[in-house]
Amino acid sequence: MQKTACASLLVIACLTQFGCASLPPGSKRDPRDPWERMNRTTFKVNTALDHAIARPVARAYEKVTPRPVRTGVSNFMDNLFYPVTIGNDLLQLKFKPFAQATGRFLLNTTVGVGGVFDPATKVGLPKNEEDLGQTFGYWGAPPGPYFVIPILGPSDVRDGIGRVGDTYMSPLQYVHNNYIKYGIYGVEVLDIRYRLLPQDKVLDEAFDPYSLLKNAYLQRRQYQVTDGKLSDKDLQRQDQEQYDEEKKILEESGPDESATKPQTPPP
């Protein structure tokens, strides 16, 4: 309840400070994104906060922390929240992945010293990723409108509701020491931002970073929900459509922006 109230206050603050963000000239209404003006405003605020705080901290973390330590932290965070995957495997009646995920969690927690090391991968227990948003999609729930959550970033209505449910599968939900709980949450945020550093250049060079991130998120979620049944051909077609749209916007925006080019679609 407290988190919901904070999120609402953040949305109000964003809208008050920046007003309604305008759409790029020549852009079409995306039926997946009926709240685009509000989403662009939230995206603008999230980006400003990221460039001012999260990105510099993540870069400093990468610079001063040895790679083995960073790998151990990432392994630990993956293992800590792995019960979310285990629970959602069971909710989707995927019994083989459920058994593998349970074995992976037990092996990494014990032999892997709390998950710092990853012996499970070496013995053939691959990492799996499942969440409640995917579970809803697996049983036929539509994604609903695209939605940029303050601070948390891209989502849709289905995944946003799923995030709330997933918190009750997380072991941290049952840690009553707030210093430990929020300390681990802080490390989680740092680790997530560190892992996203390789994507910074792509977003920085994109003609429309908002659209690029939206399409990447929605494609990835569709791929996950369908367990990879979205073919490479479908992904390439969607990438080509995004490229064509960015090119059209660029041509209609005038010569002043001719130095900025849309991202080249993958072959």
Kindly describe this structure.
The protein is mostly helical. It contains twelve helices and two strands; from the N terminus they run H-H-H-H-H-H-H-E-E-H-H-H-H-H. It has a two-stranded antiparallel ribbon.
List keywords for this structure.
2 strands; disordered N terminus
Topology:
Blueprint: H1 2-18, H2 36-64, H3 67-80, H4 82-91, H5 95-110, H6 119-122, H7 132-138, E1 146-149, E2 153-156, H8 157-167, H9 178-195, H10 200-205, H11 209-225, H12 232-252
Antiparallel strand pairs: 1-2
Helix pairs in contact: 1-2, 2-9, 3-9, 4-5, 7-8, 11-12
Number of E strands: 2
**Measured on Cα atoms, how large is the radius of gyration?**
20 Å
- How many discrete domains? 2
Strands ordered across the widest β-sheet: 1-2
Distance between the termini: 46 Å
Q: Segments where pLDDT lies below 50 for 5+ residues?
A: 1-20, 255-261
Strand content: under 5%
Helix share, percent: 55-70%
Summarize the structure.
This protein has 267 residues and is mainly α. Helix content is 64%, strand content 3%.
